Amino acid sequence: MEKKLERILKNYVKDECNIISTLQDVQEILGYIPEEAVNVLSKKLDIPTSRLFGIITFYSQFHLKPRGENVITVCRGTACHVNGSERLINRLFLELEIPPGGDTTDDLRFTVEKVNCIGACGIAPAVVLNNKVRGKMTFEKLMREIRNIKAGE
Predict the structure, then answer these.
(1) What domain range is 121 assigned to?
(2) Which among 10, 12, 30, 58 is placed 20 to 30 Å from 79, CA to CA?
(3) pTM for the predicted model, two decimal places
(4) pLDDT tens column, 82-94
């Protein structure tokens, strides 16, 4: 990891990039931003770790723990909630055997995210599966999609 971070830091210094770009590069290469990487960046760039963690936790694009290869984002906005998104989430966690308090399967194949709104109220309940919006989602339809993903891997 240290060698990968050194490469990123050379670009930071050479191109006078901002810290957001640097964090994006770290996440792209490592898949997430581990605490160890934050500590290395803090020392190398002379930026307090608290400032780096503040940036990382402010932007939803950054992740401090590994995520699954497939990301399922379930909307919990009012329209989606009224149309059953919470039941969908609960069944999904059970079906994928995601540990209590977690959001990613042990094999890192799936991550389930809960968000407040994705702006697709007209097709509630809405789910984003690997960056593709799916509307009028039922548990059966979602499990069919998941089985298709598993079969294709």
Answers:
(1) 70-152
(2) 58
(3) 0.78
(4) 999 999 999 999 9
